[in-house]
Amino acid sequence: MSWSRLCAAKVQGGMGFKSLRDFNIALLGNQAWRLLSSPDKLVSRVFKVRYYPNGSFLTAKLGSSPSYIWRSVYEAQSLLSPGIGCRVGNGQDIDIINTPWLPTTANPYIHIHSASLENQKVSSLMRVGEIVWDEDLIRDLFEDRDSEIILFIPLPYGVNDSCYPIAILHKNRNDIIWKQHASGSQELVNSALSILNQWKSVQDKSFDSSLGYICPEVGQEQWHLPESNSVKINTDAALFENPSRHSYAFIIRNHYGDFVRAVTKCSVGRVAPEFAEALRIREALSWIKNNQQSNVVLETDCLQVVQMIRSSFSSLSYLGRLIVECRTMMEELSHKNVLLKFYAILCNDLRE
């Protein structure tokens, strides 16, 4: 009996043996991940200079006269690629095309494949000498869907490009065996990011998830006026399937309940719900900071994002970056008496 037959599942007439090749590829994948996650290590720098000087491991080619070690590690590239996302920092190490760097659940790759973008880095889409998107250039080069998603990617200064892993393949394997259902690679990526973020927020012991800690009005089911000489900002986000869009909005009212201002924006592209929720909070905090507003109560109905912001949550994903930005702005606005609170979703209908 052949080894491939022995490795087949028992229900398929095999013996259920583990494939030594698959096991070896998995171990090599661990080493390949080290090349991606630790680019400053000596071995990573040696491989980059030799095999992918103008790109990353994800876009590397086998090349001519490869060493035995490189040939072995390269075998894991196809295994890692569907489960890796790239997060833009300074944009100097990420290729514009053929690299999954867009934070969207629909398709993380740039749609356009122009010859002028070959071997071009994401940093070329930023203003010269700045870590800021060149909006005019981006809108000229890309279609609406891609340009809107790119312009929504946060770019904190002094952060390098990085990759983040996805680890939900075992669930997909079980679905194939027991439910005869196979998820696509992008579906796996999105599911894993959501599960990872939820697990980290739950595991964080520095945050008390009780409603009493988050909002003093325990069991509150009605919108209340802010205190005297203060304003209240209520935020909301929405996702649309057809066409794929996401939007956010927030409304500002004074202590009399009078309307002060409302801000809303709708963008092309599908993003994870947690990302949309964090995005609306960041935009509201940016408005507070830019308008030098003080004595503000910022209310949101997303408990998970509130937990992440008020804890030590961190992640290599775009969501993690948004959370860090929100937390940083909250600290900068601490002297302005800005409070972030969670309110029950029942308040949605009552505060209108």
Protein topology:
Elements: H1 3-6, H2 20-37, H3 42-51, H4 68-74, H5 77-80, E1 84-87, H6 135-141, H7 144-151, E2 162-165, H8 169-179, H9 185-203, H10 211-214, E3 231-240, E4 245-253, E5 259-268, H11 273-290, E6 296-300, H12 303-309, H13 318-332, E7 338-342, H14 347-350
Parallel strand pairs: 3-6, 6-7
Antiparallel strand pairs: 1-2, 3-4, 4-5
Helix pairs in contact: 6-7, 11-13
Structure in words:
- With 352 residues, the protein is an alpha/beta fold.
- It folds into two domains: 3-165, no CATH class; 206-350, 2-Layer Sandwich (Nucleotidyltransferase, domain 5), CATH 3.30.420.10.
- The chain is 39% helix and 13% strand.
- It contains 14 helices and seven strands.
- It has helices spanning 3-6, 20-37, 42-51, 68-74, 77-80, 135-141, 144-151, 169-179, 185-203, 211-214, 273-290, 303-309, 318-332, 347-350; strands spanning 84-87, 162-165, 231-240, 245-253, 259-268, 296-300, 338-342.
- The protein has a five-stranded mixed sheet. A two-stranded antiparallel sheet has the order 1-2.
- The longest helix is centred in the middle third of the chain and has 19 residues, at 185-203.
- The protein is elongated.
